[in-house]
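Can't attach files on this board, so I'm pasting raw text. These are the components:
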Amino acid sequence: MLKFIFHRLLQLVPVLVVVITVTFLMAKKAPGGPFSAERKASPQVIERQNAYYGYDKPLPVQYFRYLANLAKGQLGPSTTYPTETVNQVIARSFPVSLQVGTLAMAIALAFGVPAGVLAAVRKNTLLDYLPMSFAMSGICLPTFVMGPVLAIIFGLWLHWGNVAGIDQAENTWLPPIFLPALTLGLFYGAYVARLTRGGMLEVLTQDFIRTAQAKGVNSLRIILKHTLKGGLMPVVSFLGPAFAGLISGSFVVEKVFNLPGLGKEFIKAAFNRDYSLILGTVVFYAVLIVVFNLLVDVIHALLDPRIRH
Amino acid sequence: MTRTLFFLPFVAALTLAVLPVKAETKADIAAKNKILLIGNGTEPQNLDPQVIKGVPEHHLIMALMEGLVTNNISDQSIEDPGLADRWEHNADASEWTFHIRDNARWSNGDPVKASDFVFSYQRMLSPGLAADYADMLFIIKGAREFYEGKTTDFSTVGVKAIDDHTLKITLVGPTPFFLSMLLHTSWYPVHPATILKFGKIDDRVSLWTKPENYVGTGPFKLKEWKPNEVITVERNPNYWDAANVKLNGIEFYPIEDQNTEERAFRAGQLHKTNEVPLDKIPAYRRDNPSLIRIDPYFGTYFYRYNVTTPALKDPRVRQALTLAIDRESIVENVTRAGQKPATGFTPEGMGGYKTPELVEYDPDKARELMKEAGYPDGKGFPKLDILINTSEQHRTIAEAVQDMWKQELGINVGIRNEEWKVYLDSQTNLKYTISRSAWIGDYLDPITFLSMWITNGGNNNTGWSNAEFDALIGEANRTGDEAKRNEVLQKAETILLNEAPFGVVYWYTRFYLLSPHVVNWNPLILDNHNYKYIDLK
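---
Top answer:
Structure tokens for the assembled complex are below.
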């Protein structure tokens, strides 16, 4: 097992090199630069600003300098936030996205798994159709619709929580991260429900379940002990990348609820041509994806003895 | 029975929670504590008055810093005494002497000295600082030479500290509008000891702007800066006019999404928004006119014509395009936020200067001009593109113009949409035929709108050049008499409008939501509010 994990971690290096190279080239080749503006500064000013950040050097020099700094763990200076480094930007915005993402995932699982199980066990009854149509509408309703709807209901009508910002407003009691997390949680929960249902149905038709039923095992026990373990496999595969995506922040939800999270930095960096911040957030995201995929594989191996061999 | 009793408190709590109780909002409580809550657009990049270039930064500097003169409570064409309590100038307004008031203090208690200004202007003009607005100071004698490295001796530049309280500034020529320029942040002083504590005089990136290090001259001082969350300023007891500052503090919230900001206002999280979503303006004007404010703003929305395009080389074609834009209809039906159809390039609202008002809507004349230029009913006219940056509003306006040109002139234009930085790049390199543009004045003088059109001007971006126009701008810069200077500038603008390297659309307005708690928030054409006058009730 340890050998397996070590091998997978080694694969991280080539993955990162490819990701960095492609991102670097795409960012540098995009028209425009970090210092252009509607009221244009003189060419000398732009030149000096470029020189300050070393953007006047030939591309290969910039590229290898970036790699050298990255090896030391330095992601470079940000041009959007001149008084901060990219490390600092990620360090302050990631915790916000991590909290929102983790709560969202908890909500998604709390809604999705029971709904999916219920639908699978009571296949083709009202208890199947109802949660599944609910899930389908959850998938179809994008977060930029769901977010404002929740903000209006819980923020404007009921005054339970913030409509914007991470600072708890007076006379509200919902934690400011709750509504953003609920927005994301409902969306991901819908996927989880459908995947759970599918996985459960597949397992429920297998012979060992029928054997258990024939032996007169309590049906709750069949579901919890025998079916769920296999039935959740598709959910686990989905969870890895989904969780990495969730905790690295959602641009839409952070915009709708005005949260200082990482998702916003990711998109803004691209718009602002903030080269170091683009690379920094992409690298960070790539590492998260690889690590979570690895975790998924480990969990798979634990759940399914066949994979271990 | 016991079961019912057990659930009773929960049911009661739930009912209470569900019923919308009219509790005091954040804004109500903040108003009592005299803390103003403002939506401020995007997260500021910097709080160094000499490095900043954006509007949100500008709004913050107005609280943290003050210059020699400061903004009036209700009229932007009047300069109130700031750090200087009086000043005088010679006959042609090319030599100015400012007397810094005895009680002018930095927020750390240090006295504000004339030499601080000399240091600050040296910093602003240091090539290494690469300040976007360094050219604002080029009207000081010798400033351009110093900036361009022809000399490294700053004593050759026309800024002198006669003594601690007397500052003398010598300008390259007569500048009757000098005071209005001084309202711009690029003329504000920075604290020399603090700058040097955190780096060299010309370090562009410096940690002096962190809250724990910041030293300013404004009515408020920097208390807290949480990026993408809030910037908090609190009353500055060392401010010379601290006794007349009404607020205890201001919280600036960077909220980029207009719909989110509007919800935050309705939920009582803000006293003032930065903007209002365009589609909500009609409803507010109808149902809640007391909450929405629409003020004239010192900006022009226009279409640049690339005069190096063969079809647009002929001024008659450019005029025809401009004549065929129905501005009235655009502001009535498309933008719908009280904008004024532009009749010239320089907006209304400046005391002495008035634009020549040459732009009109006259489709017949437009057709006539097209015919003269060899495109009767648009026949033979190549297909041009309107370049816009990604935005619903720009697209709708472009579609309206596209339709007008098709209807009136029989020509087909396309719409090309580009992401902001790509769009800027295309515009700079003349990789467009027609381009949506905007210009916001930096200070209250027509020159900030007209000088950009000189030959090879950095913001000309049309390829247009006219020797007579250049000469008139030069003449205006040498003329001290205000009436005469305005006349020269009007002549220049007349040439500009007749040559039409652009077609104007409308003059901007600023629209925002304002809570009834806020007192003294007056319409100001440059939108630079002096927060010391603002109060909450």
